[in-house]
Predict the 3D structure of the following.
Amino acid sequence: MPAVFTVDPRSGVPIYLQLIEQIKRSVALGVLQPGEQLPTVKQLAVDLTINPNTVGRAYRDLERDAVIETAPGRGSFVRDNGSAQAPARQAASDVAKDALVQAVRESKSVGLSREQTRTLFSAALDRWFPEEA
Amino acid sequence: MSTISIRHLSKSYGAFLAVNDVSIDIPSGCVFGLLGPNGAGKTTTFKCMLGLARPSSGEVLYGDRPLAPATFEDLTYVPERSVLYEWMTIRDHLELQRRSYARYNPNRAADLLALFGLDARKRVRSTSKGMRTALAIVLAFSIEPKILVLDEPTSGLDPVNQRAVLKLIIDAAAGGTTVIFSSHQIGQVERAAEHIAIMQNGGLVLTGSVDDLKYEQKIVEGIFETDGFSTNGFGGDARISRVEKTGRILRLTVRRDSDSIASDLNGMGAQSVRVVDLNLEDIFLNAVDPSQQTADVVEGA
């Protein structure tokens, strides 16, 4: 089990949401490979010193989002349903979407207009995707 | 083992009302954290749960039955001040536990002694406060109970042993044990507990899942062009626990629906709106702050 997760229990962000974000990120980056087994709920809860039902809740949401699947008695695995990249793409898109929504909200909250926000967004796109500019 | 239900529990000592109409449901296999300032009624609630104090009214049910002698075989209580015998050794205490509980597991006890670095030959008289707390924990976990009631289980322990106790709680809960614990260390409750209740002056002021409370309770802050905006309509809003107006800034402490309240501020013409997350300490302090009980509008300078 190579992926090491960390959560900040003192944050105002619920622990199960932090865990979902990290596992999706690990899947998106291939740190967790399709078919790879996740730690058991008990193992992860004890390792991170967090409530087991909180870990269970994160795993249930990840199943619902088709990132992982659980085989009763065998454990939880990163989904591997033929199109090996599908869960990774889904996970990557989820992580990026949350971050973009957050950024746009922040832009609005400091008083920028729609056009000003679009300009900043284009500049960021050009910086990080220069080959397509 | 099923839900523990505390129903309309009240307990008075003479004229003093220590617990006032408290109702809590604790699901089986849950880690439940009880928080509250000193004198809030946490220990009295524990005593009523365990038959150590007789409720003035109300009841505590295990499944759908009152506490019965058979329940004690499944249950361990670690009081805030552990009941240890000064002249006895640590080994004597384990022997006492072995004779008292059919579920006592000697291998588990040995592992736990090693975990906390306790020497079984030592007399309690010559141990530190932290070692006494650790011994009480060893005794409690050595019988692998189905229900654990822990009153301030980490007091006097160093951070390493505090973490060890939390891991024991989590490990037991993952195995199906129901754990109810109180702590002044909110960070521990924030980690280990799934559900919490906050008590104050004998009453229950807030209860819920830690993650749900964090998801719902936020501060929504709006900054307006001028200080001429109206706070009408927020005063009686059940979703809002506090309204503060300071010049052009409006700060709302909200119980739920932060997104739609943020949209409302946008609709009112706020230049800037932000939603701030609250951790359990913030939520606790808001819950026990008397000025938060009604959504009165507070005007600052």
Notes: The mean pLDDT of chain B is 91. The first strand of chain B starts at residue 4 and ends at 13. The CA atoms of residues 86 and 125 of chain B lie 5 Å apart.
